[in-house]
Amino acid sequence: MREDLLHFIWKYKKLQLTDLVTTQGESLSLLDFGTHNLLAGPDFFNAKVNINGQVWAGNVEMHLKSSDWYAHHHEVDDNYNNVILHVVWEDDNEVFRNDNSRIPTLELRKYIPLKLLQSYQKLFDKNETRFVNCEKDIRDVDDFLLKNWLERLYFERLEVKAEFVFDLLKKSNNDWEQVLFKLLLKTFGLKINGASFLSLGSALEFSVFRKQQESLFQMESLLFGMTHLLEDDEILDEHYIQLKKEYAYQKKKYNLSDESVLKPQFFKLRPPNFPTIRLSQLANLYATHSSLFQKVVSATSLEEMHTLFKVSASPYWNDHYTFGKESKKNTKKLTSKFIDLLVVNAILPLQFCYAKYQGKEVNEGIINIISKIKKEENTVVRNFNTHGLKAINAQESQAMLQLYNTYCTQNKCLQCAVGTNLLR
């Protein structure tokens, strides 16, 4: 038994509603179940009950055992003085407020339908091979409910990403250009080099980087130099040597420190994702657009964003993936798939946060964009698809990641629209 089941039963009135009696033998009528409180304090606010003919208005607190009242020290907390009913699974102790007045108690287990408990047991039945608790039943949930729940989950995920963006804003002294620079660096670095590229964004002031925007070569020398990619004295490639000289000059001119920057990795990466290629593409993006932040936050369609990010690495990388080693010639463009990834993980979260910062509403515009992006392919999305919850676009695949990580793996089925629907 879990306390969140008690909350569910109370919130959705899944108990016997007539002939209720408190553990003290008093008749009880539930006039208003109150409002569920998800923050600190009693579990339900502004309830109304009739006990032995007397109407009481106040709050309801819930516990598995009534003795938990004392285990949580509610008897000395003024926030619980207005509790009019203590709802428990098992009454093992009388409970009093801090003024020594007794609190009426309802022992819930006497008034719960057996079918509900069986459904609950089925949902949480331990099975190590299951992907999620409801995998056998999720395909039976109404499509309309699922669509609405997935949209809400997507914005929950955006809110999580917003915390990261606003933290970057704080560390960047409210410089949105710097925030975009860091977000792009982290996203260009992908999982393996995201932390390395982000450390570069923290060590290199965007104002310094921006001063080099008229020269792609100078921007590349800064990015390669700060990430320790110009420290090999055995490479005799002329382009490499010139970049190294340029970085030494800029490092001295701007008093740069690269000690805190993590060196990026090449191991386990496909050549198009090598840090050399990604950093060059990012440099070319800024060389192409002098007011990138304004263009990014003003973009209102996926097509506009794809046009904005249609850049390549510099010509040197047409026949290189690493310094000094020639490869088959091809232009290292940002692919449509990679641009979609940038939009999902950097651009839309930035637009969402910038709108909140300005007190504006952009939710509909964000949905219009992300709903046109193809769904992501990963283990979580594939498993949901196998069990009947199919993603049709990136908004829904992002929502599934939020569902799995925040609800399914945490057994928060009773806070999930799917779980509550199956129990109801």
Task: Record keyword descriptors for this entry.
9 strands, 2 domains, 424 residues, alpha+beta
What's this model, at a glance?
By secondary structure, this protein is an alpha+beta fold. The protein is 47% helix and 11% strand.
The total count of strands amounts to: 9
User: What number is the mean pLDDT?
Assistant: 94
Largest β sheet strand count, sense and barrel closure = 7 strands, mixed
Distance between the termini: 17 Å
Number of helices: 17
Shape: elongated
How would you classify the helix and strand content by structural class? Answer: alpha+beta
Order of helices and strands: HEEEEEHEEHHHHHHHHHHEEHHHHH
Return the domain count. Answer: 2
Residue runs with pLDDT of under 50 for 5 or more positions: none
Rg computed from alpha carbons, rounded to a whole number of angstroms: 29 Å
InterPro entries: DUF2851
Pfam families: DUF2851 (PF11013)
Organism: Zobellia amurskyensis
Protein name: DUF2851 family protein
Fold and architecture overview:
The protein is of the alpha+beta class. It has two domains: 110 residues, no CATH class; 216 residues, no CATH class. The longest helix is centred in the middle third of the chain and has 29 residues. Strands 1, 2, 3, 4, 5, 6 and 7 form a seven-stranded mixed sheet that branches. A two-stranded antiparallel sheet has the order 8-9. The chain is built from 17 helices and nine strands. This is DUF2851 family protein. It comes from Zobellia amurskyensis. InterPro entries: DUF2851. It holds the Pfam family DUF2851.
